[in-house]
Structure formats: structure tokens, C-alpha cells
Amino acid sequence: MTLEELVGCNxxxxxxxxxxxxxEDLLVAAQRQDCLTVGVYESAKLMxxxxxxxxxxxxAADEEDEDDIALQIHFTLIQAFCCDIDINxxxxxxxxxxxxVLGEPDTADSNGNEPKDLHCILVTSPHADDLKCxxxxxxxxxxxxxxxxxxxxxxxxxxxR
Length: 161
Description:
It holds the Pfam family Ribosomal_L7Ae. One of its GO terms (biological process) is regulation of cell cycle. By secondary structure, the protein is of the alpha/beta class. Helices cover 49% and strands 15% of the residues. Strands 1-4-2-3-5 form a 5-stranded mixed beta sheet, sandwiched between helices.
């Protein structure tokens, strides 16, 4: 491995860690402000009714979800809609970590209640200036940089802690 490759990898790894942390911070802040819409169907409904309130779309799936054709069709439709109206999209793996960040159980509870569908999460802002936090700027900047590199749907792996 050359020095350029080694330094490039370290910079990329650090950037990914920063963006991962920023995403986690953003999701927690948005959840506290009641600015999260969780679930594929709930997200589709909101984007149909009030797409201007959406500032970020997070599509989450792990390897075992890759064979779920229905989920992949939903992702394709949501991505197309987001691209059409210029909403930043981020593909995320690490469903267990995502559940931890949002304080959601990752399995059914003792009452038989299923966990929330975390495959699609929208960060919304009823007033565009309300969520102009550093974390949103960092995630948005990462999405924009990815588009400049012709990677239209950037991806990120959330790491267990």
C-alpha cells in the first residue's frame, strides 16, 4: 500500500466516522424535537402530503434485507421521489445501532408489540430554519460531495458501540 493510499484511507475513515456521528446526533435531536417520521408507509404518506418539510431521507437495510423485494421496490420509489424534489438521501446499514440510537427495541417486546419499522426515516422540519444544526449541515455536505462524485445515493455503515 502506498503512502497516498494509506493517508487517503485514514482521511476517508475519519470522514465516515464524523458523518456517522453527525447522523446519530441529528436523529437524536430530531427525535427530541418530534421531527422524525419512522416507517416506509408513514414516510411515503408524509412525502405525499408535505414533501417540503423533509430535509433528509434515511433508508436503512442490512445484508439480510437485500433479498426483500418489496422493501427494495419501496426504496426505489422513495429514492426516485426524493431525487425528483431534491431531498438528500442516505443509505445506512447497521439496523441494530440505529435502533439503539433511537431507543427502539430491535425485537418484539413481552406484550408481542413489534418494533418500529426503521427501514425508512425522514427528518422533517416544519420551519426550514429550525433544524439548521451542525449535524444536519455535515450530513447534507456528505450527500452533496457524494453527488459530485456521481454517487447519487451515498451509503454509510453505523458501527456498534
